[in-house]
Every structure is written in C-alpha cells, then in structure tokens.
Design a protein that fits this description.
15 helices; 10 strands; alpha+beta; five-stranded antiparallel sheet; 2 domains; binds zinc ion
C-alpha cells in the first residue's frame, strides 16, 4: 500500500511549476546574533534558547568581562552564558565542531594514499537517502530511522564490511498539500576493501538504491530512486566541507561542491528551505514561517543528530591509518576586540541590537559604520570606567543613556 504518491522527486528536484512568492533576499543575510535578536529571542519555544547570550558568565562573585570580537568574517560576544543548542544560531557551529572534526579525521585518513598502503584503505561514499515530503514529522523521522536501520542490516547480510556516520537533515516548505517537512539522511560509508566488497564494488550504488526502494515499500512508502544519491568521495579537497555538511543540523549548504547540492540550490529558489534559511526569512519579516520554526524546535528536542556505527573509532585506530600531515599553518586572522560593561550590554540586549552592534564593530574591516563605531569605542571605554567606579548598574545605565541614544541614531543612519 502506498501512502504518498511518488511525485515528490525529493530534496533534489522540486517541481519548477510550483510557484510561491517566498524568496530569500541574499543581500539581507543576517549574522548569528541578528537572528538571535530578531527570531530566536522572540519565537523559540525553548526558554534556554530565548535566553542564550543574555547573562554574563558568573565566576566566583564577579561576572566575567563581556567582550565584543570581530574579524573580517566573523563576529561574536564572549563572557556570556550560552544555550548550547544544536539549532541555536549562535551555538550551533560550536556544538557541531567536535563531530565535524571527528568525521573529517576519518575521511582524510581514508583518502590518504600517500602515507598508507592502498590495500588497507576503505572506500568512502557520501550517501543521501530521502523519503517523500510529509506533514507528519514524527512519523517521517521514525520511518527514515527504521528504513536506514534495515538498510544497514541488509548490507551486512551481503557480507560487506563497513562503518558509517549518519545524520538527519530536513528542509521545510509552506505547502501542506505537498508536505511541509522534507526528511533525509546524509551518511558517509566506509567500505572495507575485502574480497567480497571488491567483487560487489561496481554494483554498490545500485544495490543501495534498490534496497532503499524495497525497504521503504515494506513500510508503505513509495520513494523516487533518482532522488537517492550515492557519490564516491575521492577528492581530499572536499573533506572539510563534506564533514561540515554532514555534521550540521539543517544548516545551509553554502559552497558544497557536490552535484546534489547544486540541484538543491536551484530547487530552493522555489519552495524548500533549510532551518537557518527559515530563520533568515522570519528575520526578513515573513511571519508565515514562525509556526514551522517552532514546530521543528519542539520536535527536535532531545533528538540525536548524528549516529556513528559501533566501534568505528576502534576500526580507525587498529587499522593504523596515518593522518595526512597538515602542512598549512593556521593563519592568524586580524581581529578587533573591545571590553564592555554589563550595564552597556544590558542596554544592547534590551534594544535588540546585539547583531547590529557586532556589525558596527566589524566595520573596522568592512569600512562601514565609521561614525557609529567611534561612538561605540567611546561608549565601551566609558562603560568600563563607570563599572570600575562601583556605581549601581541602574546609575551606570542612566549615565550611559544619552550616549547610547546618539549611537543608536547614528547606527541606523549609517
Ligand atoms: Zn545558544
């Protein structure tokens, strides 16, 4: 029995005739803290997420010093209590980093043919499996999980030896008619170079596609075979981006060079968006996405985002594959950093300009906000001076208020 017609074409190809007015204004891309100010603080159903980066870290009796930091590419506050949620615009990168590094290490070892005997290296595949769009995300998630579990079992029954890393991903749409949630798996498979594997090697993509179709059908789900992507990973240049992409939770797919993504990019101009693009749309004033944003956060709570096959670390250790030596020294980027008082930070939070204030500081590199930036520096100095004078926070705020008003006006004019 079929529950969903196989018209979906999945994440990768979306019916171009479908017309919706939704469009991302890419000139207007917000920074992490602007998304926090404009979307998360107001709309997240999670209290911890709403309160991310509001209070200073308390060390002993004194609050830590709050700093604003910027490089040409990134800007952040430090000294604040954060929520550490996978879906937080500020915390998600940090949260995903350990997974990304662990996975990158495994892929680059597997591709390091220079320092290793080729005969022991596993083949690496980047696999995307999808099921049709759905309005019932709980059921879709469960289906996806079960079908993947069965896929692993069936592959093992073929006597192929492998390890895998799998993550869930979703894109979103407003169309209930076509299904608002688009569930898919991204996984990296490491196939051990056994005789059995070598024998089946050429057929691996076909086997996986056929299995995915059959196992889905067993659960009453009709999938599109074309939407399943199985790509051999050979290029060492891709390791960083690929591991980042797999480790992320519903983030953008900027710069991923694989074919699958370029198709998805095209598709997205129509009606399918990643989680962070949804935040971007809400920040641009599109209220229609607030519901789906909230529903997804509530659904996502407590879910694992990434699975590692059992003993995968052990496998890479015992194989003694060399890690390629990274010859590039990490470049020290130019940066600018200023300390601000808690009183000033409170005013920034209350005015919803955490993101804007960082953009202002970043003007040091972009050449923008030249007047408001001078006021910001001055205001930061004054705020620290007032803080050292042991004035009450309220009195500090009074003293700072006029300057803050001037700064805000200038910031909005620039
Ligand atoms: Zn956070």
């Amino acid at each position: 029995m079929t529950t969903t017609p196989p018209e979906h074409e999945s994440v990768l190809l979306i019916d171009k005739k479908q017309t919706t007015q939704v469009q991302l204004n890419t000139d207007l891309l917000h920074n992490d803290y602007e998304l926090l100010d404009l979307v998360q603080k107001k709309h997240s159903p999670s209290r911890a997420m709403r309160l991310c980066s509001v209070a200073p870290i308390q060390t002993g009796t004194n609050p830590a010093s709050i700093r604003m930091n910027a490089t040409a590419k990134k800007a952040s506050f430090s000294g604040l209590v954060t929520c550490n949620n996978h879906l937080c615009s500020v915390c998600s990168n940090k949260r995903n980093k350990p997974n990304q590094e662990r996975l990158a290490g495994m892929i680059s070892k597997s591709l390091n043919t220079t320092d290793n005997d080729m005969a022991i290296l596993p083949d690496v595949y980047f696999i995307t499996n999808t099921i049709p769009r759905s309005n019932d995300i709980v059921k879709a998630h469960k289906d996806l999980k079960q079908i993947f579990k069965r896929l692993v079992e069936e592959l093992r029954r073929l006597d192929i030896e492998f390890h895998y890393v799998r993550s869930f991903d979703y894109t979103f749409s407003l169309s209930s008619k076509r299904g608002r949630f688009f569930p898919h798996n991204h996984s990296i498979f490491f196939f051990k170079p056994t005789e059995r594997y070598k024998h089946l090697k050429q057929k691996i993509p076909r086997i996986i596609k056929r299995l995915w179709k059959r196992l889905s059908r067993n659960r009453g789900i009709e999938i599109s075979t074309e939407a399943q992507k199985i790509i051999k990973v050979d290029n060492k240049e891709d390791v960083e981006q690929l591991s980042d992409y797999v480790a992320k939770t519903s983030k953008g797919s900027e710069n991923l060079s694989y074919e699958i993504i370029s198709k998805r990019k095209k598709a997205r101009t129509n009606d399918s968006f990643t989680f962070f693009e949804i935040m971007e749309l809400i920040a641009q004033g599109d209220k229609r996405f607030i519901g789906i944003y909230q529903e997804f956060i509530t659904f996502h709570k407590g879910k694992r985002t990434i699975d590692w096959s059992r003993d995968i670390d052990h496998y890479f250790e015992t194989l003694k594959i060399e890690d390629p030596v990274d010859m590039e020294e990490e470049e020290q980027e130019d940066s600018v950093s200023i300390g601000i008082s808690k009183a000033l930070y409170t005013m920034i939070v209350k005015s919803n300009v955490r993101g804007r204030s960082l953009r202002c500081l970043q003007g040091h590199f972009t050449g923008k906000f030249n007047r408001s930036r001078l006021i910001l520096y001055h205001m930061a100095d004054l705020s620290k001076h007032l803080e050292r004078s042991y004035m009450k926070t309220d009195d500090q705020i009074d003293r700072l208020r006029d300057l803050f008003a001037v700064w805000l006006t200038e910031l909005n004019n620039e």
